[in-house]
Design goal:
The complex is a heterodimer of chains A (about 400) and B (about 240). Chain A contains 13 helices and 14 strands. With about 400 residues, chain A is of the alpha+beta class. Chain B has a single domain (about 5-15, about 25-225), classed as P-loop containing nucleotide triphosphate hydrolases (Rossmann fold, 3-Layer(aba) Sandwich), CATH 3.40.50.300. Chain B has helices at about 45-55, 75-85, 105-115, 120-130, 145-160, 175-190, 205; strands at about 5-15, 20-30, 35-40, 60-65, 70, 90, 165-170, 195-200, 210-215, 220-225. In chain B, a hairpin with a 2-residue loop joins strand 1 and strand 2. Classes of the chains: A alpha+beta (about 400), B alpha/beta (about 240). The structure holds adenosine-5'-triphosphate and magnesium ion.
Chain lengths: ~400, ~240
């Protein structure tokens, strides 16, 4: 018997019981849709995290001030003023596994250009900061060592700030006021997007570190930095770099075993890699949970196919009397089951993709539907059909022709 | 002329649990190509049981069955299916057509399993449908046909593969007397064209169309005689 004929017979059988076919398919539709949607949400999340890793820059270690005890009061982590520009310089020169280290300070305030004003984050950083963050300028020039050494009042604008103050005009060469102090705009930074914490990284103004320390932030001592951002030479030495930094700062800050360190280090890439791993694991887990519903759908298919074989015993008998071989009957019922699951699979893929799109539009979750997950889902639906269709089909093919013909 | 069917000491024992029932107790007969044979006998005498064996739907417990010179006895199921497909045509009391399937597709069915292409199937089916007087009813579903017409579809289906023998178990059992007559006239004319027919019936006037009557009683043949007006191509064994 040719394949087209087998397909025709199967389609006719499914059409005969449209409602039942649809309800049977529903299990597969829901299962596949769930798998597709879950995978889309999961891989969307891990995609965003990997983007963020890229946006931070690779092999980054963050050094932040630790808690200090002063007069019985313990400040929280990051609150103390224990790190200095000299610490940053020392890390860069004395730690062999470190490529760059940049001290930076952070404040916020009003920025005015002509009659436009905008409230934004103001970052002071040494020129290395932009190397570490892998963040070039798209117009003008970057902050250089002369700006830093001379504490020159120049600044770089993030894209969001540039747009809000200057619209589409080129800000380079203009004078803006940061906390009422005039600065010359020397460049505009490339668009960076959201940070892992969901902040707009382009909503910031950058000035040389020393300029910021002198003019924009207040501190107990001169040369205090809010944090030091460090780039290790490569991925292999990132842990080594971290312990070199700790050893160096322990020495510089005279930390002994009895004294709690007044700084701490964070391996950012590592944290994000862990987050990415868990997002991937999450998407796998979601997929696994969703595929349970596929199995339930498959059992539904098997159930209905068994009913169908019983109902159509007489038809099977007629076909056998007329010359159908065991394999013809087997193939006929297998085709029916696989057709059911593949049709269900296609509808499920469409629904799952649609659902994922709706989720990303209305809940703002990032979703990503890969060709890979669609292919897997489609094959899986076919496999479910083959697996759960086999037993009923074999039952049909194994019938004795006279018993089947006599069946009422 | 050669025997198209040769049964030698066929026995069929049914076992139900610990009980055994011998439905055929040593049946032997030969049928020559071109014969029209009526099998008669009381209910439960073993007519259908022997038809099932003749139709390769069931296997005898013992005995030898030669169909067209082939020993059917030890054949595997798939080979029997092929024999049913190529050498035999079935007509049943209850028509046994596929519901919700156009008449012409019912007729085509044996050709589907014989592996013919769609175009050739349709061509062959239309020829036999015309032959049995169903021109114009090709696309009716069984439920849109009278009993007599349904039986004609079944006959067309039995004929389409040009079988050696047509086996009909009470083909007029579900039909009124005038429709029965039509169907029997059709059988007669097919037989005149040289087709071998074996038919089970309870009715003497239906049996009268045949040229030979074999009568069963309690699993044995009690009489086997040439009768009736139908043309005889061969002799009884
Ligand atoms: N599958 C079976 N299992 C057990 N006994 C059976 C089976 N098939 C038939 N028989 C028995 O064999 C005997 C012959 O049955 P068969 O169907 O051949 O009768 P029949 O001559 O065709 O009768 P009728 O004219 O009523 O159709 C009956 O007594 C029946 O009960
Ligand atoms: Mg009977």
């Amino acid at each position: 018997m040719d394949f087209i004929q087998t397909l025709k017979i199967a389609l006719r059988a499914l059409r005969t019981n449209k409602m039942r076919s649809f309800l049977t398919m529903l299990g597969i539709i829901i299962g596949i849709a769930a798998v597709i949607a879950m995978m889309a949400v999961g891989s969307g999340a891990s995609y965003v995290i990997s983007q963020q890793i890229a946006s931070i820059g690779s092999n980054i270690i963050l050094v932040i001030p630790g808690s200090t005890t002063s007069g019985g009061l313990r400040t929280g982590t990051g609150g103390a003023q224990t790190l200095s520009s000299d610490d940053a310089k020392a890390i860069m020169t004395d730690c062999p596994s470190v490529a760059y280290a940049a001290g930076n300070v952070r404040t916020s305030g009003q920025i005015i250009s002509g009659n436009m004003n905008w409230s934004s984050v103001i970052m002071g950083g040494t020129p290395e900061l932009f190397e570490i963050r892998e963040w070039p300028v798209v117009s003008g020039r970057p902050i250089n060592q002369q700006d830093e050494d001379g504490a020159i009042k120049v600044c770089l604008l993030g894209q969001t700030v540039a747009e809000n103050l200057f619209g589409s005009a080129d800000p380079v060469g203009n004078i803006i006021r940061i906390k009422k102090i005039p600065f010359t705009v020397i460049g505009v930074l490339e668009r960076k997007g959201q940070s892992p914490q969901g902040q707009d990284q382009d909503d910031a103004v950058f000035v040389p570190l020393r300029t910021a320390q002198r003019n924009l932030v207040r501190s107990q001592r001169t040369g205090i930095v809010g944090s030091i951002i460090v780039k290790a030479k490569n991925e292999e030495v990132i842990n080594k770099a971290e312990s070199e930094i700790q050893a160096l700062l322990n020495q510089r800050h005279r930390i002994t075993n009895s004294k709690e360190p007044d700084f701490s280090t964070r391996n950012l890439s590592e944290i994000l890699a862990v987050a990415e791993q868990s997002a991937k694991a999450m998407s796998l887990l979601l997929g696994a949970v969703a595929s349970i519903s596929l199995i339930v759908g498959g059992i539904g298919i098997m159930n209905i196919m068994l009913v169908s074989v019983t109902e159509r015993t007489r038809e099977i008998g007629i076909r056998m009397a007329i010359g159908a071989k065991t394999n013809d009957i087997l193939l006929q019922f297998m085709t029916e089951a696989v057709l059911l699951t593949m049709l269900g699979g296609l509808i499920g893929i469409a629904l799952g993709a649609g659902g994922a799109t709706i989720v990303s539009r209305f809940l703002g979750w990032p979703t990503m539907i890969s060709i890979q997950s669609i292919t897997i889902a489609f094959f899986f639906s076919a496999v479910v059909g083959i697996f759960f269709g086999f037993y009923p089909a074999r039952k049909a093919a194994g019938l004795n022709p006279i018993d089947a013909l006599r069946y009422e | 002329m050669s025997s198209v069917i040769s049964l030698t000491d066929i026995r069929r024992v049914f076992s139900m649990g610990d009980q055994q029932f011998e439905a055929l107790k040593g049946v032997s007969f030969d049928i020559t190509a071109g014969e029209f044979v009526a099998i008669m006998g009381a209910s439960g005498s073993g007519k259908s049981t022997s038809m099932n064996i003749l139709g390769c739907l069931d296997r005898p417990t013992s005995g030898r069955y030669l169909l067209d010179g082939l020993d059917v006895g030890g054949m595997p199921a798939n080979q029997l299916a092929e024999i049913r497909n190529k050498k035999l045509g079935f007509v049943f009391q209850g028509f046994n057509l596929l519901a919700r399937t156009p008449a012409v597709e019912n007729v085509e069915l044996p050709l589907v399993y014989a592996g013919f292409h769609a175009k050739e199937r349709r061509q062959q089916a239309l020829i036999v449908m015309e032959q049995v007087g169903l021109a114009g009813k090709e696309n009716n579903h069984p439920s849109q046909l009278s009993g007599g017409q349904q039986q004609r579809v079944a006959i067309a289906r039995a004929l389409v593969n040009h079988p050696a023998v047509i086996l009909a178990d009470e083909p007029t059992g579900n039909l009124d007397s005038s429709t029965s007559e039509e169907i029997m006239n059709l059988f007669s004319s097919l037989n005149r064209q040289g087709i071998t027919i074996i038919m089970v019936t309870h009715e003497h006037d239906v049996a009268a169309y045949a040229g030979r009557q074999i009568t069963f009683k309690d699993g044995r043949i009690i009489s086997d005689s040439l009768t009736g007006p139908a043309r005889q191509n061969g002799q009884t064994a």
